[in-house]
Amino acid sequence: MKILSKNICVINHPLVKHNLAVLRDEKTDGEKFRCALRRISYAVFLEASKNLPTETKKIKTPICECENDVIKNDINIIIAPILRAGMMFCEVAQEMMPQAHIHHLGMYRDERTLQPVWYYNKISEAPKNPKETYVFVLDPMLATGNSSVDGVGNFVKKGIPQENITFVCLLAAPQGVERLSSVFPDVKIITCSIDKELNAKGYIVPGLGDAGDRIFNT
Ligand code: URA
Known about the structure:
globular, binds uracil, 9-stranded mixed sheet, single chain, alpha/beta, 3-stranded parallel sheet, 30% strand, 16 strands
């Protein structure tokens, strides 16, 4: 893992790199793409969730009593996939944090302006205890940063501290990292690579193409 700044982490584990190569390859079909994405997601969410608060619990094993840390019981965990490409990420995140609430963030990118257009937002009420709420906003691709700023902004507006919010992606463009971290400097960004640039259509270069199309065979 490479920490580029206090809040930007690039996971460079060999298994992550290996699976990233599978994802980037244009010859990888939908089934293999989804398998590689799933494998990578476990590494990504282990890293993304490593600062969740824990408490000590007494446990009786078949041998004796002991103490073991567990995720604090009274915290609220929100997994917020940006539709649609965030959905596959979400499956693994939910498997690893089964107590989490899922908030779908429906937005697509206007191809002309590259701005997000909202069509669904399932976050209506402010969380009861924002300081004890931890949010993971998911989108495999951090490209322009426009959707990520909107997605994260939703939770900041509800009073959730930026320090409790993590943006999780597979690939990032330098522009996206710069934009998200300049608007929300205390939000953590977890990615597997910061690629070279964005092209004129807002795609990450070299990237992996359209993540949603490759996951959903569209
Ligand atoms: N969304 C994608 O799916 N791919 C990109 O390269 C950028 C945004």
